[in-house]
Amino acid sequence: MFPILGLFHSLPCPERPHCKRPNCVFSHRPEITQVPTVHIQVDAPNSAPASTPAPVASSSKAQQSPATIPAKRPISFPLRAAGSSNGTPASEPPSKLRKTGLTKPAAVPTATHTTTGVPILRVNAAQSQVAIPVRQAMLKSLYDHFTVLYENILSRNPTLASEHALRQEDEVYRKSTKLTYRNAVISSIASLKRRPVPDSPSHPSVGTENDVVEREQARKQLESLRLTASHLEPYILSLDVMKRHDYVVEVPSSVGGDRPSEEGSVKTCERCGKPFKVRRREEADECRYHWGRAFSTKSGGEKTRVYSCCSRPADDEGCERGPHVFYERDPADLHLRHPFSFTRLHQPQVSDSNSSESVDTALDIVALDCEMIYTTGGMRVARVSVVDSAGKAIFDELVRMDDGVEVIDFNTRFSGITPEAYATALLPLVAVRKSLDALISSNTIIIGHALENDLKTLRMIHHRCVDTAVMFPHPQGPPYRRALRTIVKEVLGKTIQAGGAAGHSSLEDSVATLDIVRWHVANKTKRARPAG
User: Fold this and answer.
1) What is the distance between the alpha carbons of residues 172 and 141, in angstroms, rounded to a whole number?
2) CB of 362 closer than 8 Å to CB of 441
3) pLDDT digits (tens, 9 = 90+) for 94-113
4) What is the CATH number of domain 231-254+339-348+359-522?
5) CA-CA-CA-CA dihedral for 509, 514, 520, 523, to nearest 10
6) For residue 337, what pLDDT is reported?
7) CA 134 to chain centre
8) Do residues 39 and 55 make contact, with C-beta atoms less than 8 angstroms apart?
9) Residue 19: its pLDDT value, please?
10) Could you read off the pLDDT of 380-394 as tens digits, one per residue?
11) Strongest mean pLDDT among 40-54, 193-207, 249-263
12) Domain-by-domain residue ranges, the chain?
């Protein structure tokens, strides 16, 4: 026997009071006395039938016309209208009778994080082929193993483990079935255990399985490309472009190296803009400054300028303490501290086998980057790193300051140079330049980012330069420049310069600069000559 749904309890029984049904589906309440009726319009034979039912008749049976016929099954009345004819309130159809869409929206997995950092999976349970509690348990297990793997980098990237665990679970879910899902997650965990522990966010073992595979494929593609001078000829800066980007293209006419230090002189502080007396590190006056850059932002509908280091307004007191320092840009001033000179001339290969002349050892292509510190002679080079066209390090040395030049600030946040590291420096700049002569001649193509700064601090004049700051220009044009880490993240998907207060690595930056040039050449971006 089917259960009674009660769909007709608001209708009076048509056979009352003579109804003999033991379980009548209609109402027998005394207050409902009228049997619903339907008016049927009797039209001519050729007229069109009525499209809608007529109003219910009045309460008196005597007033019914011969054309009014009692409704045998007035089931449709409470489902069609709001009950104006029977005095009952409107009601919606039962949920089983409601029309529903045949398609369901795609599940979009999202996550929230607990206080412990474990991500919580947010997925439509009806659309997941694997039970959500099972997926959540597998997600937590992935998170635990990512946390162990990233133990050395989580302090600087606290959400990295949860983000990668969520993406890894989604990757496994998409390529597995209900029966294979659990084993697929276990296999992913086993591969995580086999990865080497990364020491930086750009390490090859950082990321999901797909990230690692894609990065390895991209690395092999880049390494398979052997850059030649013919590849880079279209990107070599012309002298006009070099001049527009502040390269020093000629030796200044003033006397070189005549005044290496400005100790005791009054200069304008590069950090706070105030005049100060130049003193060495132990005696320098304290400066309050912002190490970040000021940028415009909107707050409460008003445009304000704040610093990237602390998000404080531009007119607020500095967030960091340190000594006053100065920075010189005029080539004549730089030449006065330490003289500029051209890279040595290339020695053509001697065809005579009996000649004692050796073949020129200079390379066709190198990538170069320097780290600088503040001294009593302005900003000076403290580390030089050079890699060949394959990305192999061929020179990486710390630089000792010239006689009479004292350190004011090691600028560790950016240079990565510490007092302990600097104490091991042996070669002064003159010796470093002679060492570079074995690797770089006037024919060598030097790759760098904002390379004019590196050449200035090396006091080197070179005319065959490829500059990634020019190759990947800022959308707003000069004098704005894109940061190297931004370009590397965009084109290579790698993170560099993630040391925080520990500073940058010139070796890492030189390899990254070479890689984005190789990427540019490998993707066959055609440019006759970089725009200035």
Assistant:
1) 13
2) yes
3) 554 454 544 444 444 554 55
4) 3.30.420.10
5) -120
6) 96
7) 30
8) yes
9) 84
10) 999 999 999 999 999
11) 249-263
12) 1-88, 113-223, 231-254+339-348+359-522
